């Protein structure tokens, strides 16, 4: 790390097991223990949970979405209110995305030019452009501890010259982002490795970003429908080539098997809407998979969701009660299941971390696989990936 | 096995208005007093629940409310499948001690008395447009509005209804009865009385000590009188004034209360569900009603509004504010300065305004919390005013400030 570059984080590696690592990530608002999962609070809130309840699941970092927050309340209001921490009374860390990905995925008409992401305003239909400079400006107003560079996202199922173009453009845009970023002493700008499923392009992009010596790096453009066999190999390669002393963030990944495998491959940070979104549909995550609470079998099941879970749902409510809330479409069901699912994710990550520190990650992984796949039907990609991480699943 | 018994002890009266203490005590089979397990000061407000918890209230939020309100009303059908009593099912009662807000010790001794009392009724406490419709000896399912919505039609016989109330094991039980809207034929009103008395007798065969009899009879003076007298003859622990909040205006409301109260004994508690605006409440309290329940504070929140009225004549504040209004988007004040609710202690008007604009669930949570808190604060102030003989002034000040210009 060069001495004169402003950064607002410090990474301390606590332990290693094979490719995996346990670290302490010092950020402006709290120290995070990695590997970690970061819940998504798109509009500055997570599914009806109070900030205190989010703290209670031992969460030190949540995401906000720049596209949504830039739209409402908008950068001017955000700035005047003193940023998102202040607005939502959240005392720990925040991370914001660039806004580009959401635009491309939410707005049919968005397309990408050298200038930026061109889109039609959802308000009046006028043509607008999200440039790297604008993304930085909005994210500086939001004031998150980690902000993401605007990248040229292509779907992982895209092939050919478009992938290469996107990779080069991502590198050109990172310089514009660094240039436009006004608060490098308080906010950490992460670059995003692109390059689709092409290992050479990934390598080129990664090298280009590392040359810029950014505070942290993300692996982008995955979990978009590519085969899992490709997915883990890209993660593995990027994690192997990224610098040891910087945090590695795998974007948009949050299924428990993916979390385990990719932690074993050396990833530090993950985010995903899955645990809170699935809670809204009445699904609870448990060690053996999922519980779909609307099913009648739960109407007379008076156990907690999980005997060992310490979340407010498990400590107070029966499955039968949660079933009745889900069936009656009560908002409370979403609140309680979100609290549980986030606790589940945090517990899983803590389990992975502790086993790295204690030197028994392989046993942890085996136990996890046994519970999730009791019939020995663990997918072959996961076996392959874990094997490459030095773990032989029986 | 100890049984629950409900007692009400009067404290101070001012005119007809009165304060008192509602106790849930346990007695043995011979009726000997074992201990007091819950106590509630009246006049008071029972938070309505959907499926066993006030809407949007997780257990930590609910625990905070116990300082102010320790009763919740529940419609009985939802939890009918459960075999072990309602307290266990919705995680209050014994289980509620498992979860304490951070840094708070286990409840002990006197503090345990503030644990939530559960009031069972067959009427949906948060939807008074649905009325308890009793047809012959069967309770038709029209009574359970959201059961109808979620599970389709189902009928419950009186026998099943009685058994259900027994199994649920609530602290207070409202007898099943037949509600009628203000404008129906007097034949129907008379019938509502007969049916309600009939079912009350059935319920009293298996429950004693904690059954409240419901007085029906709609807007017919004779029917109301008969219903009140007949119910008063029975072994009930208190009275529910039925069919209120169903189309009558304020003077009609008062008229119906006046027909009933002279015929029921003063030493038992009087519950009047269905009316909820402060105006209606003040009127009913001045006539001698003790316990209220309505969807009013939750409903206000659903419109994006926060009640902030003041009962102090020297404080000038509007009745409510509409937080959907963009003028609040930069407002860094709490919803109500000085309010001790969770929402006001932790968040700003700007945040609530943002949450409303983005249709986020947390907006409902924070508004429900604030509105219920403020509303319960209003009840506390009302009790205090009766206690010092100032209720009349209290009422007049409030009406002059907020109702003289037909505000609301
Ligand atoms: Zn749990
Ligand atoms: Zn408040």
Describe the 3D structure.
The complex is a heterodimer of chains A (394) and B (408). By secondary structure, chain A is of the alpha/beta class. Chain A has two domains: 10-273, Alpha-Beta Barrel (TIM Barrel), CATH 3.20.20.105; 279-389, no CATH class. Helix content of chain A is 42%, strand content 18%. Chain A contains 16 helices and 16 strands. Chain A has helices at residues 51-56, 66-71, 75-80, 84-88, 100-106, 132-142, 161-180, 199-211, 228-241, 256-264, 274-280, 312-316, 319-327, 331-358, 361-372, 380-388, and strands spanning 10-17, 20-27, 30-34, 36-39, 61-64, 93-96, 111-112, 117-120, 127-130, 146-148, 188-193, 216-219, 248-250, 269-272, 283-286, 289-292. Chain A is globular and about 60 Å long. With 408 residues, chain B is of the alpha/beta class. The radius of gyration of chain B is 21 Å and the shape is globular. Classes of the chains: A alpha/beta (394), B alpha/beta (408). Chain A binds chain B through residues 43-45, 47-53, 56, 68, 72-73, 77, 80-81, 87-89, 299-300, 302, 312, 315-318, 320-321, 324-325, 327-332, 334-336, 339, and chain B through 50-53, 55-61, 78-79, 81-82, 84, 88-91, 95-96, 98-99, 102, 146, 150-151, 329-330, 332, 342, 346-348, 350-351, 354-355, 357-358, 360-362, 364-365. The structure holds zinc ion (2 copies).
What's the CATH H-level homologous superfamily of the largest domain in chain A? Queuine tRNA-ribosyltransferase-like
Query: How many domains would you count in the coordinates of chain A?
Result: 2
- Beta-strand portion of chain B reads 15-25%
CATH superfamily of the largest domain in chain B: Queuine tRNA-ribosyltransferase-like
- Beta-strand residue fraction of chain A: 15-25%
Helix/strand/pairing class of chain B, anyone? alpha/beta
The CATH topology of the largest domain in chain B turns out to be TIM Barrel
Number of domains of chain B: 2
SSE string of chain B:
EEEEEHEHEEEHEHEHEHEHEHEHEEHHHH
In the CATH hierarchy, what is the architecture of the largest domain in chain B at level 2?
A: Alpha-Beta Barrel
**Strand arrangement in the largest pleated sheet of chain B:** 4-15-14-13-12-11-7-6-5
Q: Say which molecules are bound, naming each kind only once.
A: zinc ion
Q: Could you give a short account of the major beta sheet of chain A?
A: 8 strands, parallel
Q: How large, in whole angstroms, is the Cα Rg of chain A?
A: 21 Å
- CATH class of the largest domain in chain A, please? Alpha Beta
Principal-axis shape of chain B equals globular
């Amino acid at each position: 790390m060069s001495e004169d570059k402003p950064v607002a984080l410090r990474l301390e590696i606590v332990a290693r097991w094979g490719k995996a690592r346990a670290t302490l990530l010092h950020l402006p608002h709290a120290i995070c223990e990695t590997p970690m999962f970061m819940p998504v609070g798109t509009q500055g809130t997570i599914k009806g949970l109070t900030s205190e309840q989010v703290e209670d699941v031992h969460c030190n970092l949540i995401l906000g979405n720049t596209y949504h927050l830039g739209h409402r309340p908008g950068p001017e209001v955000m700035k005047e209110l003193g940023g998102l921490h202040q607005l939502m009374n959240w005392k720990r860390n925040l991370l914001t995305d660039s806004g580009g990905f959401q635009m491309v995925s939410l707005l049919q008409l968005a397309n990408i030019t050298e200038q930026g992401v061109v889109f039609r305003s959802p308000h009046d239909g006028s043509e607008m452009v999200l440039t790297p400079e604008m993304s930085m400006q909005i994210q500086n107003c939001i004031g998150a501890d980690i902000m993401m560079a605007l990248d040229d996202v292509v779907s992982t199922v895209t092939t050919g010259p478009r992938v290469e173009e996107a990779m080069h453009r991502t590198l050109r845009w990172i310089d514009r982002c660094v240039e436009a970023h006004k608060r490098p002493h308080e906010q950490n700008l992460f670059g995003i490795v692109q390059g689709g499923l092409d290992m050479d392009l990934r390598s080129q992009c990664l090298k280009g970003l590392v040359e810029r010596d950014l505070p942290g790096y993300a692996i982008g453009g995955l979990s978009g429908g590519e085969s899992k066999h490709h997915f883990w190999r890209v993660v593995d390669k990027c994690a192997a080539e990224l610098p040891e002393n910087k945090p590695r963030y795998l974007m948009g990944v949050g299924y428990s098997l993916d979390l385990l495998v990719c932690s074993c491959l050396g990833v530090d940070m993950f985010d995903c809407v899955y645990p809170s979104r699935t809670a809204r549909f009445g699904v609870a995550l448990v060690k053996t998979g999922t519980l779909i609470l609307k099913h009648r079998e739960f109407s007379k099941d008076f156990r907690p969701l999980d005997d060992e879970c310490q979340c407010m749902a498990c400590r107070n409510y029966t499955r039968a009660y949660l079933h009745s809330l889900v069936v009656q479409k009560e908002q409370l069901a979403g609140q309680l299941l979100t609290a549980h699912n986030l606790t589940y994710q945090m517990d899983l990550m803590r389990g992975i971390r502790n086993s790295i520190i204690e030197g028994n990650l392989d046993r942890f992984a085996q136990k996890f696989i046994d519970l999730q796949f009791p019939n020995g039907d663990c997918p072959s990609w996961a076996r392959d990936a874990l094997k490459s991480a030095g773990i032989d699943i029986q | 096995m100890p049984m629950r018994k409900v007692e009400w002890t009067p404290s101070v009266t001012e005119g007809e208005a009165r304060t008192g203490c509602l106790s849930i005590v346990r007695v043995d089979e011979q009726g000997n007093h074992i201990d007091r397990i819950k106590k509630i000061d009246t006049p008071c407000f029972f938070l309505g629940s959907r499926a066993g918890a006030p809407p949007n209230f997780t257990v930590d939020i609910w625990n905070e409310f116990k300082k102010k309100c320790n009763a919740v009303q529940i419609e009985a059908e939802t939890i009918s499948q459960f075999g072990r009593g309602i307290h266990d099912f919705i995680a209050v009662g014994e289980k509620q001690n498992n979860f304490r807000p951070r840094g708070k010790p286990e409840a002990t001794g006197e503090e345990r008395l503030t644990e939530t009392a559960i009031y069972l009724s067959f009427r949906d406490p948060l939807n008074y447009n649905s009325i308890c419709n009793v047809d012959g000896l069967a309770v038709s399912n029209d009574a359970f509005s959201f059961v109808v919505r979620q599970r389709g039609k189902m009928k419950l016989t009186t026998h099943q209804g009685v058994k259900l109330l027994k199994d649920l094991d609530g602290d207070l039980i409202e007898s099943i009865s037949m509600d009628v809207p203000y404008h129906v034929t007097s034949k129907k009103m008379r019938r509502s009385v007969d049916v309600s008395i009939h079912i009350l007798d059935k319920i009293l065969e298996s429950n004693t000590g904690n059954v409240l009899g419901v007085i029906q009879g709609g807007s017919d003076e004779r029917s109301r009188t008969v219903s009140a007298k007949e119910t008063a003859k029975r072994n009930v622990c208190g009275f529910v004034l039925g069919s209120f909040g169903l189309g009558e205006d304020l003077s009609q409301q008062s008229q119906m209360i006046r027909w009933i109260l002279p015929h029921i004994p003063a030493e038992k508690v009087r519950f009047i569900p269905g009316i909820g605006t402060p105006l209606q409440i003040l009127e009913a309290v001045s006539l001698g009603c003790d316990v209220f329940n309505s969807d009013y504070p939750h409903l206000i929140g659903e419109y994006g509004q926060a009640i902030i009225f003041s009962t102090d004549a020297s404080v000038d504040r509007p009745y409510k504010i509409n937080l959907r209004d963009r003028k609040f988007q930069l407002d860094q004040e709490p919803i109500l300065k000085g309010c001790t609710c969770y929402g006001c202690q932790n968040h700003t008007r700007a945040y609530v305004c943002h949450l409303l604009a983005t249709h986020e669930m947390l907006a409902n949570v924070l508004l429900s919390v604030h509105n219920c808190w403020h509303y319960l604060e209003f009840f506390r102030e009302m009790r205090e005013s009766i206690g010092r003989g100032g209720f009349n002034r209290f009422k007049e000040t409030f009406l002059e400030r907020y109702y003289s210009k037909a505000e609301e």
